[in-house]
Hints:
Number of strands: 12
Low-confidence stretches: 1-11, 60-67, 108-115
Helix content: 40-55%
Largest sheet: 6 strands, parallel
Strand content: 15-25%
Radius of gyration: 23 Å
Distance between the termini: 65 Å
Order of helices and strands: HHHEHEHEHEEHEHEHEHEHEHEE
Number of helices: 12
Mean pLDDT: 86
Shape: elongated
Amino acid sequence: xxxxxxxxxxxxxxxxxxxxxxxxxxxxxxxxxxxxxxxxxxxxxxxxxxxxxxxxxxxxxxxxxxxxxxxxxxxxxxxxxxxxxxxxxxxxxxxxxxxxxxxxxxxxxxxxxxxxxxxxxxxxxxxxxxxxxxxxxxxxxxxxxxxxxxxxxxxxxxxxxxxxxxxxxxxxxxxxxxxxxxxxxxxxxxxxxxxxxxxxxxxxxxxxxxxxxxxxxxxxxxxxxxxxxxxxxxxxxxxxxxxxxxxxxxxxxxxxxxxxxxxxxxxxxxxxxxxxxxxxxxxxxxxxxxxxxxxxxxxxxxxxxxxxxxxxxxxxxxxxxxxxxxxxxxxxxxxxxxxxxxxxxxx
Length: 347
């Protein structure tokens, strides 16, 4: 086994043992280890599972010191303005550092839902000196694999709480939830709902916790029925907003934990013939370009996505140089951007 930050790797099973476990020849097992494409999918699956099960340590096939100019960026997807902001931050910081960036969208998964190790093999094959993960949900075996190969990596806005010692960069989500709710309270709202993202995601739970803290500080009662989770999905957010409007005492304001979900909220309000902010005030989170394009323009909490990405790249460069950051979690501040979607409650 290998511990994070360990300077040495314990001896593990040989490739012959892995081949015997998978029921293949040693040359075939070697092809899988070295990322060769001429292996049948079922054979690759058996060998990969044997590698994981036995804890086989794949030795690096490159000298990182010889290829200092290449890093990988693994993003959740490439079809959103969120990803665009992250890419912009990484690209600008990498340019200043004299680095090239290889971008991958998501982590390939098997039919059983388990992440494959093919992308890790390709990482080794092309000689990347480090990796940035944005919104990636890594498995324990993937963390161990990266540590075993001594590949430095930094998480940008991790989905779940990272293991001890893993370096990450995020936003002050709790404070953002406080700020959004305090703004609505200052306008005179007390019936404030929140449409959150995934219940188990770090950023989502922190924003809801900040919202509840602001209510408590103001002496406003927390109403469990006012908290709905929509998984950061626009259509689900629309349905959750309709559910809130059907309550016996519907909210007069709603804090929506992502700008993307506010599009669904606006759609739900339009379906019911309600207007923003005359009938209900809306605050978002992220400050994506969409927040300025919709009508009325959205009051939202700005999350510094490009700055987060650039900070992560700077930390990665330090780690590539052998320098370990003092702290493992870096949080950048959030701030409220007031536009036209909030007003006092209708009397």
